[in-house]
Amino acid sequence: MWEGDVWVATRAARAGADIVQSGFFQSYGTEMKGVVNPVTQIDRDSESVIKAMIASHFPNDGFLGEEGGGDSWKEGRTWIVDPLDGTVNFIHRIPQVAVSVALWSDGQPQVAVIIDVARNEEYMAVRGEGATLNGSPLSVTTTEKLGQSMILTGFPYDQRDHSKPYLDLTASLLENARAVRCLGSAALDLAWVASGVADGYSEHGGEHGLKPWDLAAGMLLVTESGGRFTDVLGNEHALEAAAFVASNGHIHDDLLSLVRATLPSHLR
């Protein structure tokens, strides 16, 4: 991997994180993209500075951001950005938020950087070269049984319309895993699987669920740390699907089976 890609990804993510961090201590405008889906001026400012920094170095690359949309992630070089992952947490001053920057090339992840803003921790991965946290190598857990596992999850923004089917997965996880947590930042959930804090993670996709910017960086962190990431059908390198599963690899098939068995009918 060309070193310049990593340099730009890291500095772009850091620039966005600086804006998000400063936002904890200032007033800002908030709008609603949906009933329970807010966006703040901080989201937009972070994406703007990240996009500008990337464009200044790679003006011909594609860009796909949560707030501004953009190009396809399946063709050419495309930077996929979540400028503030965990906006609901951020609004409520819960320090579980992240900035996520990933470079994909022809549908394959190449570089990933996730900044844990509150803890000032930098997760980074390069395809074929492993993953690190603040420069130290990452590795997934060695837990072999789902019953001994800590599993992370979350809920789509149409939770009020489909609360029962979404809770079916949560109930199944509670019945089969050691512990289940919902922390509100998909990027950090994936980073924590990669770093061995949790053994697995699953969440629904679809129209109101996880999007490419939620997953593009964390996916590479997990796989470069020795774990697995697939959609509900078992496909790798998928950023659009009905549901997703990340794990240490050992529990992946069992976790995937639970997700498939409880997949809501509106996502089938």
Describe the structure.
With 268 residues, this protein is an alpha+beta fold. The chain is 33% helix and 28% strand. The protein contains seven helices and 15 strands. It has helices at 3-23, 41-57, 87-91, 163-176, 186-194, 212-224, 252-261; strands at residues 30-34, 37-40, 62-65, 69-70, 77-85, 98-105, 108-116, 121-126, 130-133, 136-137, 150-153, 179-182, 200-204, 228-231, 243-247. It has an eight-stranded mixed sheet with strand order 4-3-5-6-7-8-9-10, sandwiched between helices. The chain has a five-stranded mixed sheet with strand order 12-11-13-15-14, with helices on both faces. A two-stranded antiparallel ribbon has the order 1-2. Strand 8 (121-126) and strand 9 (130-133) form a beta hairpin.
Summarize the structure.
By secondary structure, the chain is of the alpha+beta class.
Quick tags:
268 residues; single chain; alpha+beta; five-stranded mixed beta sheet
Which helices and strands occur, and which strands form pairs?
Blueprint: H1 3-23, E1 30-34, E2 37-40, H2 41-57, E3 62-65, E4 69-70, E5 77-85, H3 87-91, E6 98-105, E7 108-116, E8 121-126, E9 130-133, E10 136-137, E11 150-153, H4 163-176, E12 179-182, H5 186-194, E13 200-204, H6 212-224, E14 228-231, E15 243-247, H7 252-261
Parallel strand pairs: 3-5, 11-12, 11-13
Antiparallel strand pairs: 1-2, 3-4, 5-6, 6-7, 7-8, 8-9, 9-10, 13-15, 14-15
Helix pairs in contact: 1-2, 5-6
